[in-house]
Amino acid sequence: MSATVSPLAPKHFADMPAIRGVAMATAAAGIKYKNRTDVLLMAFDRPASVAGVFTRSKCPSAPVDFCRKNLPHGVARGVVVNSGNANAFTGVKGRAATELTAQSAAAALGCAEHEIYLASTGVIGEPLDATKFAGVLGEMASTAKGDFWLEAAKAIMTTDTYPKVATRSAEIGGITVTINGIAKGAGMIAPDMATMLSFVVTDADIAPAALQQLLSEGVGPSFNSVTVDSDTSTSDTLMLFATGAAADDGQVRVNAADDPRLATFRAALNDLLKDLALQVVRDGEGARKMVAVTVKGAESHAAAKRIGLSIANSPLVKTAVAGEDANWGRVVMAVGKSGEAADRDRLAIWFGDVRVAVHGERDPDYSEAAATAVMQQEDISITVDIGLGSGEATVWTCDLTKEYVAINGDYRS
Amino acid sequence: MSATVSPLAPKHFADMPAIRGVAMATAAAGIKYKNRTDVLLMAFDRPASVAGVFTRSKCPSAPVDFCRKNLPHGVARGVVVNSGNANAFTGVKGRAATELTAQSAAAALGCAEHEIYLASTGVIGEPLDATKFAGVLGEMASTAKGDFWLEAAKAIMTTDTYPKVATRSAEIGGITVTINGIAKGAGMIAPDMATMLSFVVTDADIAPAALQQLLSEGVGPSFNSVTVDSDTSTSDTLMLFATGAAADDGQVRVNAADDPRLATFRAALNDLLKDLALQVVRDGEGARKMVAVTVKGAESHAAAKRIGLSIANSPLVKTAVAGEDANWGRVVMAVGKSGEAADRDRLAIWFGDVRVAVHGERDPDYSEAAATAVMQQEDISITVDIGLGSGEATVWTCDLTKEYVAINGDYRS
């Protein structure tokens, strides 16, 4: 948590309604930070359908292992999240910490341990002392409340400069349902996935398998299309819970993700995921500018995405953006290094609406002043037309500033 | 070229002997820089055997295309290198510039255009005005001299803070031969290859095919094992020329790379290539520390190298090094994101000689003070034992500092 809020932060937070079927509480356990909350409990009145997507790291954290193990059961009664310590690369001690936490949470909520989900974020490699918060979960369960989303988002922050919340509504078979989400993340952000934790809850009544498919599809153009620094966390966790409370209004349970009744729900969910993902990029460590990189004309959508990420992860592109330098030659470099098919003499590049290069060379009408004016904006779009096919993708990143170096040069100490 | 020399620069330059059969001249053509040389001509008395390795970028520069086209002819009479403009992404104008330069050089040296090799380094995307130096190549050819290596290295610098030279000697069939090399490069340095130009010349008499095989094998553990910023240039060029002058001493021409008479030559060449490659890393933009990353116990050598590069390219690892922070958790992260097989619970990690992690958790004898003492050194080694196989590789990188951001935020302007 930083004293200075990112200049790219939203001007105001979404007004987060309560979601029937879920209550939350936070506590200040002093895991790493002083004078702030660092533990979140989410409690579901009844077993909620659950879906999850996790880091692809080969060295995942103990909580990620724990969640993966529970997911096949398909139902959740509680979620415990702590910030300040990732409980990653902590060996036997790490597993013991997840077990202690799960036992305490299950006792507090009167449920089975496989109905508990866990996430930890913070420093890697230091043993997590779960006794610091396991003892207070009972009290947290008894004081949890529904109108607590912003506080929940605050408790899971690490180097974040602002809490990330979003809400949407949709209709399923004529019944209005709500989707709320929180997220944290600022550095160690790369697909797949962004280094972040995100928890999304809806009162819709949707079966676990359908929920999982919705989430797996939704993560591609959202959290898996943002990068701050190309570094993939050991802890990335995105979970979606459906409390099913809308069944009380007559919403008929949906069992299949391709059910046409899910059309507006799917759109609302995807929009919310993108909203949260972009909030993570806008809080990129040291970020001063947000960059949307769109690649079109690639051989395939996947190729377009890889080229886009090659541009978005390039330190030389990102430092040029920081310096407000319309250095499109570095975009050419990043296209060339992506490994995807490209024909230099068909490439065209735009900064904002200003075409800077076409047919493999500088645009005949190139205006340095016009390009620089684009770079001076806070939100910048870079568009590349590869000229070979119809593959298209957009990814988002931020600039690479001296502040990123400063933040990460002494984060642990 | 920077006013401040990298603190990692060699304490003194190698004493470079002349190499029989090659002469050099430089000129100040004002391509981009003021008050310094920016054009180099290398002239071979007789057709020299030639080998080359070039960028794998899908958007190579016009000179790279030109060299690739000439290489099958196998012989060189001249090399023209300019700094300040990469002649990359310059379309038809770029090809015209290479043709003009080659014509002028061929006329100056009295040889065919396919005996000329070209390289350009600097800004991408701006048309190169080759008329600025094409006219002086005749005079350069007439004043070229053999004892000019350090000056040659200076003329090809861009953001380099010092010229890079190296020399070695070897024996072929009892005859002593010499190998000299120069290189430039500081940023946009990544395999494959490092963004750099390097020209190596020997007086040995070796046939082109053998020379090519020696060079292709030598580039792997040298220039293709260093990274400054993961960004691959459009212009990377490494060339090896053999003037054959040692034939005058009785050296019998070698036609095959596996000829046992090449044993000491191969070792000397590989050592020289590594020397030059490490000089490039030590001049990494903004670098204050040099890092050797060794990965052992991987499933294969190739897997070890990919894991090593994942660590060496991680902005979070590199900023931690800049901050003298023994943040080994980020090394775990980088191993995990590499995509290669890893078993968290078998990993061991050393900073220098200090083992910081073993069996998937912090070393029981971990000493923060000892680890920090390693990080305060100028030269740092990071060793990771994956614990799965016998694959091993070492790659080299530098730290990521605020100066890197500053240098690249306003390089072009």
From TrEMBL, chains A, B:
PANTHER family: ARGININE BIOSYNTHESIS BIFUNCTIONAL PROTEIN ARGJ, ARGININE BIOSYNTHESIS BIFUNCTIONAL PROTEIN ARGJ, MITOCHONDRIAL
Alphabetical list of HAMAP family matching this protein: ArgJ (MF_01106)
Active site per database record: 195
Function comment: Catalyzes two activities which are involved in the cyclic version of arginine biosynthesis: the synthesis of N-acetylglutamate from glutamate and acetyl-CoA as the acetyl donor, and of ornithine by transacetylation between N(2)-acetylornithine and glutamate.
Major localization class: cytoplasm
Pfam families cross-referenced by the UniProt entry: ArgJ
Keywords annotated in UniProt: Acyltransferase, Amino-acid biosynthesis, Arginine biosynthesis, Autocatalytic cleavage, Cytoplasm, Multifunctional enzyme, Transferase
Subunit structure: Heterotetramer of two alpha and two beta chains.
Name listed for the protein in its UniProt record: Arginine biosynthesis bifunctional protein ArgJ
